[in-house]
Amino acid sequence: MSGHDHGVAAGTSQRSKLIIVFAITFTVMVAEIIGSVFTGSLALLADAGHMFTDSTGLLIALIAASLALKPATLKRTWGYKRAEIIAAAGQAALLLGVGGFVIFEGIRRLFEPPEIAGPAMLWFGIIGLAGNAVGLIVLASGRNHNFNMKAAFLEVLNDALGSVAVIVAAIIIAVTGWVQADAVVSLLIGALIIPRTLKLLRDTVNVLMENAPQGLDMAKVREHILALPHVIDVHDLHASLVASGTPILSAHVTVEDTCMTDGHAATILADLQQCVAEHFDVSVEHSTFQIEPAAHRDQESMPH
Prior knowledge:
There is one protein chain. This protein is mainly α. It is built from nine helices and three strands. Helix 5 runs antiparallel to helix 6.
């Protein structure tokens, strides 16, 4: 089997796992929404919101895994990679509203606690935990394959913790009758949703603004380029992300005039590409360099 075929087979396997876990997570989310209506538990609704976060994250991961198998075209030279970012930004905006509602309602219920059906809440919490456990088992073997699968594993693990919190609250209500436990757990789950949502929103905005990838020090990139033999200057240096895991970089590199005729230009280009691909924490495999002779600097009309 060729390396390409092996990669496609691995990608197909990852996609199959993500489909199974997404189906489980989405089903449990729906069950918890029904359970919230039936029991009056805000904690179940909050955990359903938490699972909605992760269901959407898993769906994005599934889309990313599917799109990774599609070749680029002349019209869509990067395929549909940016669709992942647009979907994630929409998810973040929606979840800010969900998290805000959960926290607001949780505070209100601390002072005006409604009746909670503790035993039924417990069973719905157990259903949620069981679904999360199956999801963790499915993803366990592939969680270290790439960042996409690792993120999916961590999302399901977070769901499992939310289900445990619901179960603990249900037991406290059933044993002690302290119904405020439902509101306390809701606030804890809301506290999990908001920071993750803000981080997701920040990361997606950074990509859409075409900021430099997090972890790539552009000052050090410039320093490395200038340290290469025969390089005089570097300008128009830009780096961004097409989507998660796809950094790109471009630059105009000024070299000694003689390099354009003595063969050094090709060597410098190879060194530049190797440098950005291997010397930094963020490996940039998609790089474009314009090699310019020193005499060309006077003709630059739009420096950046």
